[in-house]
Amino acid sequence: MDAARLLPLFGVVLFTLPALWRPDAGAHPDTARGLIYLFTVWALLVALAAALARGLAPALDAEEEAEGSLPSLPTTAPPKDGDL
Amino acid sequence: MPFNILVAVSLVYVLFLFLVAFVAERRAARGRLHFLYSPWVYTLSLSIYCTAWTFYGAVGSAARSGLEFLTIYLGPTLVFTGWWWVLRKLVRIGRAQRVTSIADLISSRYGKSNLLGVIVTLMSVAAATPYIALQLQSVTLSFGVFAADTPEFWALPNQSATALWIAGGLALFTILFGTRNLDANERHHGVVTAIALEAVMKLVALLAVGIWVVWGLADGVGDILDRIDASALADWQLQPGRFAGLTFVSAAAVLTLPRMFQVLVVENTDERHLVTASWAFPGYLLLMSLFVVPIAVVGLETAAPGANPDLFVLSLPLSQGQGGLALLAFLGGFSSATSMVIVAAIALSTMVSNHIVTPLWLALARGPAERGDVRGLVLTSRRLSIGAVLAMGYGYYQLSGGSEALAAIGLIAFVGAAQVLPALIGGIFWRGATHTGAAAGMVIGFAIWLYALFLPSVGEGGLISASLMKDGPFGLTWLRPQALFGIDGLDPFLHAMLWSLLLNTLAFLTLSMISFPGPVERLQGVAFVNVFEGREGAKGWSRGQAEAEDLLSMAQRILGAQEAQLFFQAQAAAQGKRGFLPDPTPDFLAALERQLAGSVGAATAHAMISQLIGGAAVSVQDLIAVANEAQEIKEYSAQLEAQSKELARTARALREANEKLTSLSVQKDAFLGQISHELRTPMTSIRAFSEILMEPDLPEAMRAQYAEIIHEEARRLTRLLDDLIDLAVLENRKVNLNISVANLHDLINRAVQSASSTRPERDFRYERDFPTEHMPVFTDTDRLVQVFINLISNARKYCDAERAVLRIEVKRSKNRVQIDFIDNGGGIPKAQQQLIFEKFARLTDTQKAGGAGLGLAICREIMANLGGSIDYLPGQGGAAFRMTLPLRRREGEAEPV
């Protein structure tokens, strides 16, 4: 779960890194490199998120079921006239 | 690619979408649409984030400003990979509070204030209108691309006519499939299916064009990368401010755009779908933008100078003679535009009808006594709003003349929508956020957005004069729209975003700290911020004086009779009570309010209930409970509470049982007394008259008359004994049923005819709906008719209205049929409702009734034997009985004794 919290921060850092390249870019155009870099980071994030999702799914299932059982109606039927 | 084929194909595609939506609705109605509940459909429906602005505009944007277009997709990627922070909480709150729109969420959080709902609604409409216009424009332009090189005959006579047709078709689709049910929490199956299909369509189209460009026109990846570095795109310089700002705004917009909120939160059925969407949606965005740069680069190389780069996706395949591919791309763009407009129209119309129309109507038609169905009103207003939203989009398109200025509107709309962000995030994470702060922040942010970004965007000399742009209003240079407070030289977009969000947040925080939240607001704040603590939302209602019956009749007007009765029945069962009327406990009231909020929004639902309860909404105890932080530490108190609730439920059931037992023992005595009495009266007269008959010289006429009386009394005696034996047999479930098939309509006819001998002199009218009555029933028809006759005769006997009317309503649900007998008399007092099904229960005196009071008792036993039930139905404006019956009775289905 902590990993799930940290993942977007990781993404923010990696996505803003290109902002620092500018000074040393010089005359050499590197748009293609930038493109490859951004898409690699992106794919990495998707893969990490998918891996995390796989790990978290059982925990969420359990949570969902625990919730579902709370507001359920009483299983014992209300008394009927015939009972008496 | 002949233009007429294009028109034909798009018409076929539109028809296909209508068909898909229709079939999905049909199948969902029969409960056979499980794939709709898969996380993949949820993820695909999120793809309405990618509008025509993405499909066409991303390539144009890449051609103009390089990799900057990526920011629009990186923002949402960050939000979704970080779903654990915000999205999970939003979805949980949305489900717990039955939120209908983003305006509803904000209004509900800040004390169910409708003012905030109105503010958010107006902002959303203002921001979305140009965006809808942009979609219309994109479809019109793409038609134009095809029309460009066709003979004059096929050239579009008028672009605005095309836009009008599209807007009209979209309005029709949205009204047909977007307003089927009132409860905005329910999913629009047809719409969701069509949108999922369109999501696949646009992805396939863009990928197809991309693959063709990379491996068809160019020589694979390496060649494309070389071409990129050689093209004009390579001159692109990253501006850190814009890069970060755009990423932030798109991240905010994915949360706050009304249409995104609609698919993300309102249409979500299962929180676990988010887990899949957390990586699958960023993946979808990645695929959508993968080929954008290659298409832009190759487009720039091959296209004629001055060509519109926004349309490269279409014009590139077209210029290379790839008609089929161009057609596919056209359908992709068409899909992107239409799906966005449909969902936006649904979201906006829900907001407009829940926050503007319904409250207005409630304010004008005062008092809960006002009759009439609110559902019709809300649905009509929703349909009209859809029409109005699309008409406004079309109007804006006409006004702006389909100019290039529209292309920038996507980002402008994003910044407008983002103004809700501080109130939204503050509302779900900070208990101290208040109504005043939220309202002030949003209004200030919105005003700056209008002044600094929206109005200037309409164009020089449009709504803002050129001199004002240059010198500021009244010559105050520090108020120039694009250089507020003298900060000059900033990118206009970045400038407006910075100031509007900064001052918005500042006002929100400051005013939140110096103002105090009201009671309801405090409770809602806790319920929102602590939504994961598993605590029930604040009750909000102390035990009111409302009668459950009044609440039921109000709920029926909003939810519909069927649904309201089911809800009340379930709530009563949860309290351990039978019948339709639960006690108006705070728990019940809160549940009812949530249920209503799903249809008309939190603010309206709250107002309607407080009308009935009479104000006193929050008790001091509730507030103390909230203020008491120590309470949160005691984790097990929740468990204790659950246990004590269970105990209370059992105790209530026991108490009812005990009361019943006591009254039954009293009844037993009374029963014996009654029986002796009922038997003795005819016996006495038989004995007396037979003694007279023994006298020798009695005239013949008298003898005949006395014999007649004896005979009549003996028959009455037999009838009584027959009834008693009948009842005993029925009660022991030993009755022999004579099952056959019959038409329900005929059975009712038979009963009406037989019952007409009861008080035949009476003016008595029946209200029936013949078509619904025709259905076969497999049951003991004689017994069923016996019940009908009893109910009808009772109505004929006891209905005290001047012009008595008996309404017979038949409704079929799955394999059961439900038959209501409702008259227009005074009804049965609440205290007696429990008793009427007991033996010898009579509300009036014996003589008048002329029966032994066994009728309804027998009816109840017959229905139990037939596997159905009969109950008194309160709140119908007269005596009303509801029978339910299985259409086909199976052996051993009788209710267990």
Automatic annotation (TrEMBL), chain A:
Keywords: Membrane, Transmembrane, Transmembrane helix. The keyword Membrane applies. The chain crosses the membrane at residues 35-53. Residues 64-84 are annotated as: Disordered. The keyword Transmembrane helix applies. It comes from the Bacteria. This is Uncharacterized protein.
From TrEMBL, chain B:
It is an enzyme of class 2 (transferase). Residues 626-667 form a coiled coil. Keywords: Coiled coil, Kinase, Membrane, Phosphoprotein, Transferase, Transmembrane, Transmembrane helix, Two-component regulatory system. It is found in: Membrane. It catalyses: ATP + protein L-histidine = ADP + protein N-phospho-L-histidine. GO terms for cellular component: membrane. It is a multi-pass membrane protein. The chain crosses the membrane at residues 6-24, 36-58, 70-87, 115-134, 162-179, 191-215, 279-300, 376-399, 405-430, 437-455. Pfam families: HATPase_c, HisKA. GO terms for molecular function: phosphorelay sensor kinase activity; transmembrane transporter activity. SMART domains: HATPase_c, HisKA. Its main location: membrane. Its EC number is 2.7.13.3. Residues 674-889 form the Histidine kinase domain. The keyword Iron does not apply. Belongs to the sodium:solute symporter (SSF) (TC 2.A.21) family. This is histidine kinase. The lineage of its organism: Bacteria, Pseudomonadati, Pseudomonadota, Alphaproteobacteria, Rhodobacterales.
